Amino acid sequence: MTEPLPPLTERLRAETAEARRALTTERKKLLRLLDKLPVDAAACAGGEQLRLAGEVLKVSLERVPRGADRVTLPVPWLDGETVEVPLQRDLSPQQNLDKLFRRAKGLQLGLRIVRQREAQTQERLALVVAQLAALDALTLAAQAFDAQAPDAPRPRDVIKQVAAWLLAARQLGVRLPTAAKPTAELRKVARGKALPEGVRLFHSPQNAVVLAGKTADGNDALVTRLLRGRDVWLHLRDRPGAHVMLRVEGQDAAKAAEIEACAMLAGHLSGVGKGEACDITVCAGKDVRKVKGAPAGSVYVSRERVVRVVVDGAVVDGFYARNR
Fold first, then answer.
1. Which of 251, 300, 319, 324 has the most CB atoms around it within 10 Å of its CB?
2. For residue 189, what pLDDT is reported?
3. Contact criterion met (CB below 8 Å) for 231 and 247
4. What is the DSSP string of 219-239?
5. CA-based nearest residue to 89, from 121, 58, 67
């Protein structure tokens, strides 16, 4: 006989059912958006052609009769090629030239935005699909437990896996129902242990663990109990503030973009306003030492480097959104 299900597992089942519905809705929304983006791209097409028309008109202004609604001009740098330039009758050739360049610039910018949105949507869709696939695997494990299969997982393992899944789902920024929001109890299960008092958990844009001290004692605990040799430690240069740690797993070094994002978070948590510049001290965890006998949070740093960043509000808000 398998051991009885604890009440927490039953609650998690209800919460994952709610989360599945939310993620399925999100997947449908992203697919609809991907269907519409080619239409937006088509509406922005023609920017390059208008730009070409503007460049040709620029070197042929004296050949354009005033009051014409269009003119066909040769392309000086392409033998035998011509281009038809649309004009507005009530504008001078110079005014038509300025308008052509403005329209071309607007269409080209619009096309770049559409392409960027398409790439972001594809990336987000892949993450949502991966989360749903992971939930399918968890569902199979739960079914094996219900069937009392010989290789069925233990209830505690199911709880830990589902709690971790709920955290990852919320880090996507999908608005899950309130019932699916991980409680402190679930966070503890997902991490395997509670964090020291005064230490806050975040996740980087690449979903790496980021820890930050909220108090002097929290800063102390981060350095003395949580910081590992290969981790990246960050702090506002020459001013009091939050200690921030980027957890580095495996053999790969932390990416520069990840460090820059964490530097912005360190500045923000230390009182630097959004849009303001600041210098952040960065070094490996092995190069940070607690100052013996000094007040909580005081450390000695060697082999540090300084990163200057402007605190980007969108980057900082992303840390909080992934932490919901």
1. 319
2. 42
3. yes
4. HHHIIIII--TTSEEEEETTS
5. 67
- Delimit the domains of the chain by residue range: 1-191, 195-322
Q: What is the CA radius of gyration of the chain?
A: 28
Residue type, 38: P
CB neighbours (10 Å) of residue 162? 27
Q: What DSSP designation does 238 have? A: T
What residues form DSSP beta bridges with 213? 199
Separation of alpha carbons 92 and 280, rounded Å: 54
Length of the chain: 324
pLDDT value for 268:
95
The pTM score is 0.44
pLDDT in tens, 52-87: 888 888 888 888 888 888 888 888 888 888 888 888
**Is-contact 83 76, C-beta < 8 A?**
no
- pLDDT, tens only, 221-233: 898 888 889 999 9
